[in-house]
Amino acid sequence: MKITFLGGGNMANALIGGLLKQGFPVADIRVVEPLAENRERLAGAFGVACLPAADASVLESDVLVLSIKPQQMREALAPIAGKLTRQLVISIAAGMRLTDISRWLGGYSQLVRTMPNTPALIGAGITGLFADQSVDAEGRRRAELVLGAVGKTLWVAEEGMMDAVTAVSGSGPAYVFHFIEALRDAALALGFSEEQARLLAIETVVGAAALAADSTEDVTVLRQRVTSKGGTTEAALNSLNADDFKAAILRAVRAAEARGRELGELLGKD
Ligand SMILES: NC(=O)c1ccc[n+]([C@@H]2O[C@H](COP(=O)([O-])OP(=O)(O)OC[C@H]3O[C@@H](n4cnc5c(N)ncnc54)[C@H](OP(=O)(O)O)[C@@H]3O)[C@@H](O)[C@H]2O)c1
Predict the structure, then answer these.
(1) What is the tally of structural domains in the chain?
(2) CA nearest to 87, candidates 42, 134, 51, 19
(3) Which of 33, 68, 112 to mutate to test the pocket of ligand 1 (most atoms within 8 A of CB)?
């Protein structure tokens, strides 16, 4: 299986690194990247072949990964529009709808839309995937192989759910960073130094997330287990509940989902 990445930025680097780590042959990967500096970085780090612009060799690939920014999509697809015949096209561009990509490719439908998140950069991502109905089981397997190289994967049955994926896990790392900021600032307020506050906040989130991921029990049970009646954790959770913490998260996720839908409309304009 030969893969060409259109766009050799951060996400392409993460995916290529992940694929090579899993033993994918370097000779089967090429990257189209206009920026010489990025081409040198990719060739130096991984030894992959890089081209400055899409040429006929791109059409020999089995899989094309669209790892460009949504605003660059239309221009990047122009050289291959109307020329694809059998290739699976995997988009990782946030918010871009398949109907728009299909139109810009001259009416092509072997498409998979995906939404990774930034922990993919260290191989700990979670990616939502949606496939056009024309994509067969082998196409889905291929998409999973590529995105599975940087973390876990989750298929959704309707494209509309990709805005929900974006709202939960795509933007989610920023919610967690915000929580870490808040816990760090609270630690500072309680008298710890910057370094101590950072360590306490980050390691608490890392440890609790690892414990939740590792456990067969629901996260609610884990929370209840550390919340003794009349204890310190209960005092804190009562305070969070009084401030409507869960409802605030729900409102935030809904706001992200709505904005994702709006951006999808805007990005798809010709
Ligand atoms: N970073 C994330 O965590 C994350 C998460 C989810 C989804 N995504 C999506 O992943 C995609 C890539 O993100 P990124 O962070 O990797 O962006 P990035 O670092 O900016 O990478 C995009 C690369 O594509 C190059 N490019 C521009 N026009 C091109 C063309 N016509 N043909 C080929 N390559 C072209 C860009 O070159 P120039 O620098 O010269 O423009 C840049 O090197 C985006 O659509 C983003 O929405 C990213």
Answers:
(1) 2
(2) 134
(3) 68
67 CA distance to ligand 1 middle (Å) = 5
Q: Are residues 18 and 123 in the same domain?
A: yes
What is the CATH number for 205? 1.10.3730.10
196-254 pLDDT, tens digit each: 999 999 999 999 999 999 999 999 999 999 999 999 999 999 999 999 999 999 999 99
- Based on the domain organization, do 76 and 123 belong to the same domain? yes
Q: Does the beta carbon of 92 sit less than 6 angstroms from any atom of ligand 1?
A: yes
Query: For the whole model, what pTM was predicted?
Result: 0.93
Q: Is 89 in the pocket of ligand 1 (CB under 6 A)?
A: no
Atom index in ligand 1 nearest the CA of residue 54 equals 32
The tokens describing 92, both together, are: 């990782």
Shared domain check, 35 and 128:
yes
Burial grade of 261 (CB within 10 A; 0-12, 13-18, 19 or more): middle
Residue 249 falls inside a structural domain: yes
Q: How many CB atoms lie within 10 A of CB 67?
A: 26
d(CA 185, CA 180) in angstroms, rounded, equals 8
Instruction: Determine, yes or no, domain membership for 66.
Output: yes
Centre of ligand 1 from the C-alpha of residue 102, in Å: 19
